[in-house]
Amino acid sequence: MQARTNARLAAVQALYQMEASGVGVDGVIAEFRAHRLGADIEGRLLHEADDDFFAELVRGVVRLQAKIDPLIEKRLAQSWTLSRLDATVRAILRSSSYELISRPDIPARAVIDEYVEIANAFFGAEDPRFINAVLDALARDLRADEFERAADGRRGGH
After folding, report:
1. Are strands 44-45 and 40-41 parallel, antiparallel or unpaired?
2. Residue 44 forms beta bridges with which residues?
3. Angle, vertex CA 18, rays to CA 129 and CA 3, nearest 5
């Protein structure tokens, strides 16, 4: 699991870099594969990163961004837009949203927990706590059946 956690962290970094520098998806993936995966970023060794999962996340966010961004904005506080958020927060929300949309094999709670931890790593005491709330609401929007099954299990349903 550490390899996937590291891939998520690297994907957030790559998405941030793409936005800040204007480099394209193939260029940023190639750069990370050549120079970053295997390096120490934010105190975490990324040598154990799942390279294929990293590339899937970055490419997937780019491919589905026109679908992802409105879903995120729907769950932001009134009068807030993605453009008002910190670029790292945008990268976290986009990458996690991609996983919630396209990776039903990964439980929503696991996705949320992973990205909340990434947010904590970047922001520490200034953790944007709303990330958890936004991701929870997105997960309910995108995976209502998963949340219903969990609720049924707690109620003793079948």
Report:
1. antiparallel
2. 41
3. 65
Q: Which CATH number fits domain 2-155: 1.20.1630.10, 1.10.940.10, 1.20.120.80, 3.30.450.40?
A: 1.10.940.10
| Domain layout of the chain by residue ranges | 2-155
What's the DSSP call for residue 148? Answer: H
pLDDT in tens, the chain (158 residues): 688 998 999 999 999 999 999 999 999 999 988 877 766 556 655 567 888 999 999 999 999 999 999 999 999 988 888 999 999 999 999 999 999 999 999 999 999 999 999 999 888 866 667 899 999 999 999 888 776 665 556 555 54
Nearest CA among 104, 113, 85, 77 for reference residue 15 = 85
Phi-psi region of 69 (alpha: psi -120 to 50; beta: other; left: phi over 0): alpha
